Amino acid sequence: MKTFSVEQLIEGIKSGDKRLLGKAITLIESKKPEHRELAEQLLKEILPFTGNSVRIGVTGVPGAGKSTFIENFGRLLLKKGKKVAVLAIDPSSSLNKGSILGDKTRMEELAREENAFIRPSPSSGFLGGVANTTFETMMLCEAAGYDTILIETVGVGQSEVLVSDITDVFLFLKIIGGGDELQGIKRGIMEMVDIIFINKVEEGNQQKAKNTKLELLRALHFLPSKEKNWKVPVLLGSALHNKGLDDVQEKIDEFIQMKIKSGSFKKIRQLQAEKRFDYWVQEFILQKAKEEQSVGNSYDLHKKNASALLANPSTEAKIFVEELLKK
Q: Which residues pair with 60 in a beta bridge?
């Protein structure tokens, strides 16, 4: 397999070469030490060309129609002159970290579009509904000129709220179910959403859809506002039949403009970067701890104690960290 220099990757990214963009993403996803150094150099070089996109997280329970929504919504954006990148996070096996990576095959029409880029990435067991390098992958896509980034999350429940830490808009897809419409919707997600889209609304279930909308609006009324000048809209439509997608796009534009006007857009992005810093500090400390033999032995000992329940895992972790800082 041909290898590319950082300079070649940067030129390829800036010129919109999808193949080299894919190679660059593979590089930053790699955990090999020799690749990490090149990845850091690449990210440093492309930094001035990042940040010029709208980052949209799309979440919802399995079966909510996330892939269909993203494909048809992406095509709508393309018609409006946008360049769209889709980062589709596939669930990884907790046993071997393998991933199906099937989203590209589910979005065939969008994948064929010249101004669209789809990258399926394994979550590798990382919680939060995103992969651990999704933020960095997003930056590469921005440097390649994609002005709208759609992140399709794993769809596993409450841990999904972490996706809001790397996006500007958090869109929640809901479908009509039987009985209690709010059953299974975690409070954590409801507190983080910016827009709700009730999908799969057809001619025969419109009244049920309206009832679901009313229940969601009532629930939102009792939750604290994420943005003080924004009331979370609940929209109805069918992604499969391209109904209601224009409404979603208008609300996203309205929400972004509101954030820019209030000054929260830039402020939130800065806070998100700080959270990424905290995340990587933890990752690198743990990595270095394992590499250092004396520290690694201590790590293994305390981990074994926790595993055998000789002590509370949090206690063992606290003792290990105190020993690490002393060293």
A: 173
